[in-house]
Amino acid sequence: MKNTLKQLMHSSKFVAGAGIFIIILLTMLIYPLINPGNPLEMIGVGTFARPGLYFSLYDAMDVPKETLKLSDAEDKRLESIISKSDRVEMLAYFEKTGVDVTDVTLDDVDTILDLWNQNFDENNKPKGLTNAAWRNYKTLNNRLHKIGKEEREVYDVDPETGEENRLMTVNGTDYINVSRITNTKRLVLGTDNFGRDVLKELVSACGTSILIGLIAGAVATFIGLLFGLLAGYLGGWVDDFIMFLTNVFTVIPSFVLLILISYSIGQEQRGATVVAIVIGLTSWTWTARSVRSQVISLRNRDHVNLSKLSGHSLFRIVVTDILPYIASYVVMAFILQVSSGILSEAQLSLLGLGPKTTTTPTLGLMMNWAMLYAAHTNGYWWAYFPVILTITLISFSLNLMNTGMDQVFNPTLRD
Amino acid sequence: MSNSNEERRSCLKGVGVTKVFGNGNTRTVAVDHVDFDFKEGEIVTIVGESGSGKTTLSKMLLGLIAVTEGEIYYQGAPRDIKGAKKKKEYWKNIQAIFQDPFASYNMFHKIDDVLLDCLDMRGCRNLPMEQKVEMMTEACSFVNLKFAELTNKYPFELSGGQQQRLMIARIFLLKPKILLADEPTSMIDACSRSTILDMLTKLRDEINMTVIFITHDIGLAYKISDKVYIMEHGKFVESGDAEDVIIHPKADYTKRLISDVPKIYEEWDLSTV
Description:
With about 425 residues, chain A is mainly alpha-helical.
């Protein structure tokens, strides 16, 4: 045992795989301590807030202002108000109204602005322009009024009398220190369609998914091991019967079976554990087959014969003379089952047949939500890409561990 | 050497014993209607080339695989080993030494476990530990091993010869009535071989054990056995006292086996019949 572990530690693949997996596990354990609370709490009212640092505008007004004269501040502001596409639109307007713009380049913001202020007439719609385009030009024009204003006023409106009290004047050179704002929130991965913190949700979902994988893997390995041992060791009609059952389960695509079972269980009863057990119940066949073939080659070995001659019971022979010889293989099969269990859950949930949606997030459910709310078509990458990356990483690390173990336990594969 | 005693009781007897593997196109008759009668306290050798069915016969005698046809008699009565309990009882009387000592031990069990198992089987489970150690030490010293050096070691840490001697120590502890030795010397060097043969004959002399010795080496058979059975393609082609069979062979197969034995001062005839 100690030797085997030592050998495993020399396998770079196993160490890399185990390393990634342990980092994921540690993140799962430590992150909730740093950022406690319900992972499904809807903190945002809107949908899909971008990742970034959020601070309270309300609190920001109370923070004392400092004046910073930064030379490039004005240019940046201008750029954010008239974007490149706006400038293209403006040039198109000039061409329509017959203004000569042959010498004007796109980067010459000042010239374009001057020309605009001289030529744009709000009450005179050029011929051949659709109403929608004209509306867009008018909105753009309104926005452009802001430019050039040195300061902006903030008013407090009394709701009863409608009286306006000037609260403060904000200059272009006014700055506040973000760290002095009372309420700030960093949303590393933004929020999802329900306004939930994606990172917090992801960490929690990762835990649930790994748990589902472990349960599914344990169930599948247990059934496969039991059937494989019985079929291989007992032989005869027991073998025939179990192999018949295994063949039936192999021939029916397990994913179809999985969908049918999940569907028939119904939304209400479908917790994470139930889904995990269902996945386990449909994926044991390959373990059973391979364990059986290994046991058949083992049962005629001399050490098993000697054990029989020593009067050991069937149970004892299976547990002490056969199981230890296939233990490394079973561990490897278990790891692969865990990995495929996580993937199966993701597939099922993507189809809307995963665990019920209100209590626990899983990686598959997060993808399902992202898909339902069209995150992928609208470019809200933070809602689905980190999930895909996490699934890939977990699966990759487990498979890497498996390959490493294979090389240690199968000396013919060592390089 | 062959002082056959007619007074000896029959120990293991077979009538028309047959083993067939597979069916249809893959049907193989491994052992084909063999008759034999092994007497108590005899050293019987079954000689035959590879694939002649020696090991299959030995497994049937041990009760590890079922007999397809025919009947085996144990101590005069038909052998009844149906059920785990009867099998266990049968195995108290018949034990085996296998060909490959390296494959004969469970590599996860220590040597102590192997020997303690034998004591349990003899019904010494409840003896105090000191007494068990004493018995194990005695068994080890019978085969020139030191128990103090072996304790807490694994069988694979020993050499092939030591492992095979440990196997004999096991037999010494169990003291079965019949010992089936399936080519016990084929995997080890010539020096260890004579020691092991010596120990087997010593065991026979001490506890009047029947030794059924399976080998492909007819010279060895001549040296140690009282009775010889020559096996070819699952059939006994010749049997009888070792002296008779080997000095005056009748069957062609026996003659060929004898001519194939390399002799030191003669040219070795490699042409087969």
